[in-house]
Design brief:
CATH architecture of one domain: 3-Layer(aba) Sandwich
Mean pLDDT: 86
Oligomer: single chain
Largest sheet: 6 strands, mixed
Helix content: 25-40%
Low-confidence stretches: 1-18, 523-531
Shape: globular
Strand content: 15-25%
Number of strands: 22
Bound molecules: adenosine-5'-triphosphate, magnesium ion
């Protein structure tokens, strides 16, 4: 399925230059290899003042690498970077930011125990060594006002929502004088309403003459927010086009070489016995507030139950309860009739539970460990991989190769730290590993987040295959189209409660949306009594 031919390299930058904005950045013929792996093969990027420029491409296409080259994190093997027409070389991120090139990374780099104000001003060379707390806060508040990005300046980072942390990151970069701001998949972690707010901020920044580079896999939002789009495939440019002339189908075709439509629903062959049974569970979230309230839900063999809802309504905590990572203070959790309330995550693993968590970097992989070690995190105790407590090295490598091939992970070799893989490749890896571990129940939170269209289809296929093999699946997603395409039943979470229970065939987008926004259905059509 993977097209081995290199893509046609066309340079259509002239198409978009009709409005003749000033060119700020010109990256030309950029090559970058990691050991034997060629991540960029002559990529280019031209950025204009006052534009929002989307950078698109499948997982591993080189988007992050190209951004890292521009912001001085990597030095290109070959290639030139011009800033305002002048050739520049950056030997460090500090040099790039001093020249006005700033980046907000996929994973934030804030200091958790410090306050918002302290984080924003950390390492700003022009500030006096000692600054009164009062002045720090007033400077912060002023900057927030100026850019329309408000967060409580005295709050500590760990207390903030992801959306707020992102605002702090953006402010930090802006206050260092960024004229070109690169955001690497900024909306992957945001709720839809946070994303809308972010877009308003980006438009204001562009209107003030700054240049925004926006990396995303969500084609609809790319078209809604950007002026131009550059598409990369395997480290090379495919095209640069005005967004107004594009459609999601055309973009998908340029990225992958094939047009794609979300597959038609594939109904279950029929459900079996209950596997996961949650009875009236209530639990607190990380900040001590009750985040799951008297939730009841049953997932049967051969059935996918989709959990819809705006992120932050208790879905994450629910998935943690179903995998033993969080203990409810009331109610019971059972797998195959065995009461596992208050048992350890390891007991859930032994019961055949696989988990694709929302925060895969934080909890599903050990970034500094190799791909091999990460592959066997789940399965190392099985007879296949160890004997009398000793790992069988050969078997472990075979297992890893099989996993990497099945998950279609692109990597130089299996002994590199998994942190070297692109975000999407890590995600595919985790999804496949956990699907393999899930004999009885797969709990998946946003398993296709951050994946390109083709990889997202593959992961949905894995989830459907598990179901067809008789596994129970609890699937959390904020993409309603995805839930409607794969679920057999859909429930909605709102403020920690589980509401509604729709059979997929009867589910109506309007009713689900209504519940997601806090509405109540009184015996509404499509709803059935919770089982
Ligand atoms: N430090 C590194 N060492 C080795 N290989 C790397 C390193 N960084 C990136 N790569 C490889 O280079 C390729 C391009 O990676 P990059 O992170 O730029 O992709 P991307 O387009 O951002 O993908 P995604 O959408 O998944 O984030 C990938 O195959 C990745 O595994
Ligand atoms: Mg990336």
């Amino acid at each position: 399925m993977y097209d081995p031919q290199p893509p046609d390299v066309q340079n259509d930058q002239t198409v978009a230059c009709a409005d003749a904005r000033a060119t700020v950045v010109e990256m030309a013929d950029i090559w970058k290899a990691f050991d034997d792996f060629q991540a960029l093969s002559g990529a280019s990027l031209e950025l204009q003042a006052g534009e929002i420029h989307a950078l698109l491409g499948e997982n591993g296409a080189g988007k992050t690498t190209l951004s890292n080259v521009l912001t001085g994190i990597y030095r290109p093997d070959v290639g030139t970077i011009r800033l305002d027409g002048e050739q520049r070389r950056f030997h460090s991120p500090a040099q790039a930011i001093a020249a006005g090139l700033g980046m907000v990374h996929q994973h934030f780099r804030l200091v958790e125990p410090l306050t918002v104000a302290e984080n924003i001003h950390l390492g700003r060379p022009e500030l006096p060594r000692r600054l009164s707390r009062r002045r720090l806060i007033s400077e912060t508040a002023q900057a927030m006002e100026q850019y329309g990005l408000t967060v409580n300046p005295t709050a500590r980072i760990w207390q903030l929502s992801i959306g707020e942390q992102q605002r702090v990151e953006i402010l930090r970069v802006l206050l260092r004088g960024a004229r070109v701001l690169i955001l690497d998949e900024p909306t992957a972690v945001l709720t839809p309403s946070e994303a809308t707010e972010l877009f308003a901020v980006l438009r204001r920044l562009a209107a003030s003459g700054r240049t925004i580079v926006f990396i995303s896999h969500k084609l609809h939002e790319v078209l809604a927010v950007s002026d131009r789009v550059t598409i990369l495939r395997r480290g090379m440019n495919v095209a640069t086009r005005p967004a107004a002339k594009m459609t999601p189908e055309k973009l998908a075709k340029l990225m992958t070489g094939t047009e794609r439509v979300m597959e038609a629903p594939r109904p279950s062959k029929g459900r079996g016995k209950p596997v996961l049974e949650l009875r009236n569970v209530s639990a607190r979230g990380d900040r001590g507030l009750v985040s799951v309230r008297e939730a009841s839900c049953t997932v049967h063999e051969g059935e996918i139950v989709g959990v819809a809802g705006v992120s932050g309504n208790g879905q994450r905590e629910l998935t943690e309860i179903a995998t033993g990572l969080r203990h409810p203070f009331e109610g019971t959790v059972a797998i195959d009739g065995q009461d596992l309330t208050a048992r350890l995550p390891g007991d859930f693993v032994s019961a055949g539970v696989g988990h694709v968590p929302e925060d895969r970097i934080g909890s599903a992989i050990v970034p500094s460990a190799t791909v091999v070690d990460n592959a066997v995190l789940r399965a190392f105790r099985t007879g296949e991989l160890s004997r009398a407590g000793v790992m069988r090295r050969g078997a472990v490598r075979v297992f890893t190769d099989r996993l990497v091939t099945a998950a279609d992970v692109q990597l130089p070799d299996i002994d590199v730290p998994i942190a070297n893989l692109s975000g999407g490749n890590q995600q595919r890896f985790v999804a496949r590993r956990e699907a393999w571990a899930a004999d009885r129940l797969l709990v998946a939170a946003h398993p296709t987040r951050g994946l390109d269209v083709r990889a997202a289809d593959q992961v949905r296929e894995v989830v459907l295959d598990r179901r067809d093999a008789g596994c129970a699946v609890l699937l959390v997603s904020d993409d309603l189209d995805e839930l409607l395409a794969v679920s057999d039943r859909i429930v909605v979470m709102y403020e920690g409660r589980i509401k509604g229970d729709f059979t997929a065939a009867k589910a109506r987008r309007k009713e689900i949306g209504y519940l997601m926004g806090g509405g109540d259905l009184v015996g509404g059509a499509g709803a059935e009594a919770p089982s």
